[in-house]
Amino acid sequence: MAQGAMLDEWYPVSLFSQLDGKAYKTALMGEPIEVSRDGGSATVTSSDRRPLPVCVRYGHVWSSLGAPQKDLFSIPEADQPGRRFVDVGVVRVRCSPLRAVENFLDIAHFPFVHTDILGAEPHTEVQNYRVEIRKDEVWATQVKFYQPQAAKSASGGITTEYMYRVPAPTCSVLYKTCPPRPSEWDVITLFVQPLAEDLCDVWPWMALFDDVTPMTDLIHFQQTIFLQDRSILENQIPPLLPLDPGMEIPTRADLTSVAYRRWLKRHDYTYGAQLVAQ
Protein backbone atom coordinates (compact mmCIF):
# COMPACT_ATOMS: atom_id res chain seq x y z
CA MET A 1 0.00 0.00 0.00
CA ALA A 2 1.31 3.44 -0.93
CA GLN A 3 2.17 5.62 2.03
CA GLY A 4 2.99 9.19 2.94
CA ALA A 5 3.07 12.27 0.78
CA MET A 6 4.55 10.29 -2.13
CA LEU A 7 1.03 9.16 -3.05
CA ASP A 8 0.33 12.58 -4.61
CA GLU A 9 3.54 12.83 -6.67
CA TRP A 10 3.99 12.33 -10.43
CA TYR A 11 5.78 9.17 -11.63
CA PRO A 12 6.94 7.91 -15.05
CA VAL A 13 4.93 4.89 -16.15
CA SER A 14 5.95 4.33 -19.79
CA LEU A 15 7.71 5.73 -22.83
CA PHE A 16 5.15 7.60 -24.89
CA SER A 17 6.77 6.64 -28.21
CA GLN A 18 6.54 2.91 -27.48
CA LEU A 19 2.80 2.81 -26.81
CA ASP A 20 1.42 1.00 -29.85
CA GLY A 21 -2.33 1.14 -29.28
CA LYS A 22 -2.46 -1.82 -26.94
CA ALA A 23 -2.81 -1.31 -23.21
CA TYR A 24 0.57 -1.44 -21.48
CA LYS A 25 0.25 -3.19 -18.12
CA THR A 26 2.52 -2.09 -15.32
CA ALA A 27 2.32 -1.10 -11.65
CA LEU A 28 2.69 1.96 -9.48
CA MET A 29 3.44 1.71 -5.76
CA GLY A 30 2.02 -1.79 -5.57
CA GLU A 31 -1.12 -1.05 -7.58
CA PRO A 32 -1.67 -2.57 -11.08
CA ILE A 33 -2.27 0.09 -13.76
CA GLU A 34 -2.76 0.23 -17.52
CA VAL A 35 -1.35 2.84 -19.89
CA SER A 36 -2.74 3.45 -23.37
CA ARG A 37 -2.32 6.00 -26.14
CA ASP A 38 -4.85 7.72 -28.36
CA GLY A 39 -3.04 9.87 -30.92
CA GLY A 40 -1.11 12.57 -29.10
CA SER A 41 -2.58 11.87 -25.67
CA ALA A 42 -2.36 9.07 -23.13
CA THR A 43 -4.71 7.47 -20.62
CA VAL A 44 -3.81 5.72 -17.37
CA THR A 45 -6.31 3.63 -15.42
CA SER A 46 -6.20 1.73 -12.14
CA SER A 47 -7.10 -1.93 -11.72
CA ASP A 48 -10.72 -0.96 -11.00
CA ARG A 49 -10.79 1.14 -14.24
CA ARG A 50 -10.57 4.44 -12.38
CA PRO A 51 -8.93 7.11 -14.55
CA LEU A 52 -5.72 8.42 -13.01
CA PRO A 53 -4.05 11.81 -13.50
CA VAL A 54 -1.84 11.86 -16.59
CA CYS A 55 0.60 14.09 -18.42
CA VAL A 56 3.10 13.53 -21.24
CA ARG A 57 6.49 15.20 -20.85
CA TYR A 58 10.16 14.45 -21.54
CA GLY A 59 9.23 11.55 -23.79
CA HIS A 60 7.37 9.74 -21.00
CA VAL A 61 3.85 9.26 -19.70
CA TRP A 62 3.49 10.37 -16.07
CA SER A 63 0.75 9.47 -13.63
CA SER A 64 -0.16 9.33 -9.94
CA LEU A 65 -2.31 7.23 -7.62
CA GLY A 66 -3.27 10.36 -5.69
CA ALA A 67 -4.10 13.95 -6.62
CA PRO A 68 -0.95 15.94 -7.46
CA GLN A 69 -1.16 19.50 -6.13
CA LYS A 70 1.38 20.87 -8.62
CA ASP A 71 2.48 20.41 -12.20
CA LEU A 72 5.35 18.12 -13.12
CA PHE A 73 8.70 19.79 -12.46
CA SER A 74 10.23 21.86 -15.25
CA ILE A 75 13.43 21.07 -17.17
CA PRO A 76 13.97 24.22 -19.31
CA GLU A 77 16.59 22.47 -21.46
CA ALA A 78 13.81 20.23 -22.81
CA ASP A 79 12.61 23.26 -24.81
CA GLN A 80 16.05 24.41 -25.95
CA PRO A 81 16.59 24.34 -29.75
CA GLY A 82 19.38 22.19 -31.08
CA ARG A 83 19.36 19.52 -28.39
CA ARG A 84 18.96 15.82 -29.09
CA PHE A 85 16.47 14.10 -26.83
CA VAL A 86 17.37 10.52 -26.01
CA ASP A 87 14.84 8.01 -24.65
CA VAL A 88 17.23 5.49 -23.13
CA GLY A 89 14.57 2.88 -22.35
CA VAL A 90 13.93 1.11 -19.07
CA VAL A 91 15.94 -0.99 -16.62
CA ARG A 92 14.20 -2.99 -13.89
CA VAL A 93 16.07 -3.00 -10.61
CA ARG A 94 15.34 -4.97 -7.43
CA CYS A 95 15.95 -2.10 -5.06
CA SER A 96 14.13 0.72 -3.34
CA PRO A 97 13.23 3.54 -5.78
CA LEU A 98 14.85 5.92 -3.29
CA ARG A 99 18.06 3.84 -3.34
CA ALA A 100 18.15 4.20 -7.14
CA VAL A 101 18.04 8.00 -6.89
CA GLU A 102 20.62 8.15 -4.11
CA ASN A 103 23.04 6.02 -6.12
CA PHE A 104 22.66 8.44 -9.05
CA LEU A 105 23.72 11.27 -6.74
CA ASP A 106 26.90 9.48 -5.62
CA ILE A 107 30.14 10.31 -7.44
CA ALA A 108 32.54 8.57 -5.04
CA HIS A 109 31.81 5.18 -6.67
CA PHE A 110 32.78 6.31 -10.21
CA PRO A 111 36.39 5.01 -10.21
CA PHE A 112 35.39 1.66 -8.74
CA VAL A 113 32.11 0.82 -10.53
CA HIS A 114 32.53 2.76 -13.80
CA THR A 115 36.28 2.19 -14.19
CA ASP A 116 37.93 3.90 -17.20
CA ILE A 117 34.65 5.58 -18.17
CA LEU A 118 33.38 7.89 -15.42
CA GLY A 119 36.40 7.45 -13.19
CA ALA A 120 39.74 5.72 -12.74
CA GLU A 121 42.31 5.14 -10.07
CA PRO A 122 44.30 6.97 -8.75
CA HIS A 123 41.82 9.85 -9.37
CA THR A 124 39.49 8.87 -6.52
CA GLU A 125 39.27 12.02 -4.40
CA VAL A 126 35.94 13.83 -4.23
CA GLN A 127 36.68 17.55 -4.09
CA ASN A 128 34.71 19.92 -1.88
CA TYR A 129 31.31 20.84 -3.29
CA ARG A 130 28.20 22.70 -2.19
CA VAL A 131 24.76 21.35 -1.27
CA GLU A 132 21.70 23.54 -0.72
CA ILE A 133 17.91 23.61 -0.92
CA ARG A 134 16.59 25.78 -3.77
CA LYS A 135 12.86 26.30 -4.11
CA ASP A 136 12.34 23.12 -2.10
CA GLU A 137 14.64 21.06 -4.33
CA VAL A 138 17.96 19.46 -3.37
CA TRP A 139 20.89 20.93 -5.35
CA ALA A 140 24.56 19.97 -5.36
CA THR A 141 26.87 22.36 -7.22
CA GLN A 142 30.58 22.87 -7.86
CA VAL A 143 31.04 19.11 -8.16
CA LYS A 144 34.21 18.26 -10.11
CA PHE A 145 35.67 14.88 -10.98
CA TYR A 146 38.28 13.58 -13.42
CA GLN A 147 36.75 11.22 -15.97
CA PRO A 148 38.44 9.17 -18.72
CA GLN A 149 35.29 9.36 -20.89
CA ALA A 150 32.74 11.77 -19.47
CA ALA A 151 30.35 11.38 -22.40
CA LYS A 152 30.11 9.50 -25.67
CA SER A 153 31.12 12.75 -27.40
CA ALA A 154 34.29 13.14 -25.29
CA SER A 155 37.57 12.35 -27.09
CA GLY A 156 39.71 11.95 -23.96
CA GLY A 157 39.90 12.38 -20.23
CA ILE A 158 38.67 15.68 -18.78
CA THR A 159 37.79 17.15 -15.42
CA THR A 160 34.01 17.18 -15.55
CA GLU A 161 31.84 19.61 -13.64
CA TYR A 162 28.48 18.47 -12.36
CA MET A 163 25.32 19.91 -10.85
CA TYR A 164 22.77 17.57 -9.31
CA ARG A 165 19.13 18.47 -8.77
CA VAL A 166 16.39 16.47 -7.02
CA PRO A 167 13.02 18.02 -7.93
CA ALA A 168 10.87 15.03 -6.85
CA PRO A 169 11.41 12.05 -4.52
CA THR A 170 12.11 9.53 -7.29
CA CYS A 171 13.62 11.81 -9.94
CA SER A 172 17.02 13.42 -10.35
CA VAL A 173 18.43 15.76 -12.99
CA LEU A 174 22.17 15.88 -13.68
CA TYR A 175 23.81 18.82 -15.46
CA LYS A 176 27.35 18.08 -16.61
CA THR A 177 30.12 19.50 -18.78
CA CYS A 178 29.20 19.32 -22.46
CA PRO A 179 32.41 18.48 -24.41
CA PRO A 180 31.24 19.84 -27.81
CA ARG A 181 29.84 23.06 -26.23
CA PRO A 182 31.74 24.05 -23.07
CA SER A 183 29.36 26.98 -22.47
CA GLU A 184 26.36 24.62 -22.19
CA TRP A 185 25.38 21.69 -19.97
CA ASP A 186 24.47 18.18 -21.01
CA VAL A 187 21.34 17.04 -19.17
CA ILE A 188 20.95 13.45 -17.98
CA THR A 189 17.93 12.50 -15.93
CA LEU A 190 16.87 9.52 -13.89
CA PHE A 191 13.10 9.04 -13.74
CA VAL A 192 12.24 6.20 -11.35
CA GLN A 193 8.90 4.38 -11.31
CA PRO A 194 8.26 2.74 -7.92
CA LEU A 195 6.69 -0.64 -8.66
CA ALA A 196 6.97 -1.65 -5.01
CA GLU A 197 9.02 -0.51 -2.02
CA ASP A 198 11.87 -2.80 -3.09
CA LEU A 199 11.38 -2.87 -6.88
CA CYS A 200 11.50 -0.14 -9.51
CA ASP A 201 11.71 0.60 -13.22
CA VAL A 202 14.33 3.21 -14.07
CA TRP A 203 13.77 5.39 -17.14
CA PRO A 204 16.89 7.46 -18.00
CA TRP A 205 16.40 10.37 -20.42
CA MET A 206 18.92 12.80 -21.91
CA ALA A 207 18.95 16.21 -23.58
CA LEU A 208 22.33 16.60 -25.27
CA PHE A 209 24.28 18.76 -27.69
CA ASP A 210 25.79 16.01 -29.83
CA ASP A 211 25.17 16.05 -33.57
CA VAL A 212 27.72 13.33 -34.38
CA THR A 213 27.17 10.24 -32.26
CA PRO A 214 24.55 7.77 -33.62
CA MET A 215 21.46 7.53 -31.45
CA THR A 216 22.06 3.81 -30.84
CA ASP A 217 25.51 4.58 -29.43
CA LEU A 218 24.14 7.29 -27.12
CA ILE A 219 21.56 4.86 -25.76
CA HIS A 220 24.06 2.02 -25.38
CA PHE A 221 26.58 4.24 -23.56
CA GLN A 222 24.03 5.29 -20.94
CA GLN A 223 22.60 1.79 -20.57
CA THR A 224 26.12 0.45 -20.00
CA ILE A 225 26.63 2.93 -17.16
CA PHE A 226 23.38 2.06 -15.44
CA LEU A 227 23.75 -1.70 -15.84
CA GLN A 228 27.07 -1.39 -14.01
CA ASP A 229 25.14 0.23 -11.16
CA ARG A 230 22.40 -2.39 -11.06
CA SER A 231 24.45 -5.14 -9.41
CA ILE A 232 25.53 -2.70 -6.69
CA LEU A 233 21.97 -1.51 -6.09
CA GLU A 234 20.53 -5.02 -5.87
CA ASN A 235 22.99 -6.01 -3.14
CA GLN A 236 22.74 -3.02 -0.81
CA ILE A 237 21.91 -3.69 2.85
CA PRO A 238 19.40 -2.75 4.11
CA PRO A 239 17.40 -2.90 0.86
CA LEU A 240 15.26 0.10 1.82
CA LEU A 241 16.87 3.55 2.16
CA PRO A 242 17.65 4.34 5.82
CA LEU A 243 16.37 7.74 6.93
CA ASP A 244 17.49 7.53 10.56
CA PRO A 245 20.81 9.46 10.66
CA GLY A 246 22.28 6.94 13.09
CA MET A 247 21.90 3.93 10.78
CA GLU A 248 24.83 4.70 8.46
CA ILE A 249 27.98 6.79 8.87
CA PRO A 250 28.35 9.40 6.08
CA THR A 251 31.64 10.80 4.76
CA ARG A 252 32.43 14.17 3.18
CA ALA A 253 31.54 12.71 -0.23
CA ASP A 254 28.01 11.93 1.01
CA LEU A 255 26.79 15.52 1.46
CA THR A 256 24.18 15.18 -1.29
CA SER A 257 22.92 11.87 0.08
CA VAL A 258 22.58 13.33 3.58
CA ALA A 259 20.64 16.33 2.23
CA TYR A 260 18.42 14.04 0.12
CA ARG A 261 17.57 11.81 3.09
CA ARG A 262 16.77 14.78 5.32
CA TRP A 263 14.60 16.27 2.56
CA LEU A 264 12.71 12.97 2.16
CA LYS A 265 12.09 12.68 5.88
CA ARG A 266 10.95 16.31 6.20
CA HIS A 267 8.35 15.83 3.47
CA ASP A 268 7.17 12.39 4.63
CA TYR A 269 8.48 10.81 1.41
CA THR A 270 8.83 7.37 2.97
CA TYR A 271 7.74 4.82 0.35
CA GLY A 272 10.87 2.70 -0.10
CA ALA A 273 12.50 4.04 3.07
CA GLN A 274 13.49 2.41 6.35
CA LEU A 275 12.72 4.76 9.22
CA VAL A 276 14.31 3.00 12.19
CA ALA A 277 17.18 0.59 12.69
CA GLN A 278 16.32 -3.10 12.72
From TrEMBL:
SUPFAM superfamilies: Bet v1-like
Cited InterPro entries: Cholesterol_7-desaturase (IPR050584), VanA_C_cat (IPR044043)
Annotated keywords: Oxidoreductase, Plasmid
Domain spans labelled Vanillate O-demethylase oxygenase-like C-terminal catalytic: 93-266
Gene Ontology MF annotations: oxidoreductase activity
Superkingdom of source: Bacteria
UniProt protein name: Vanillate O-demethylase oxygenase-like C-terminal catalytic domain-containing protein
Source organism (scientific name): Rhizobium favelukesii
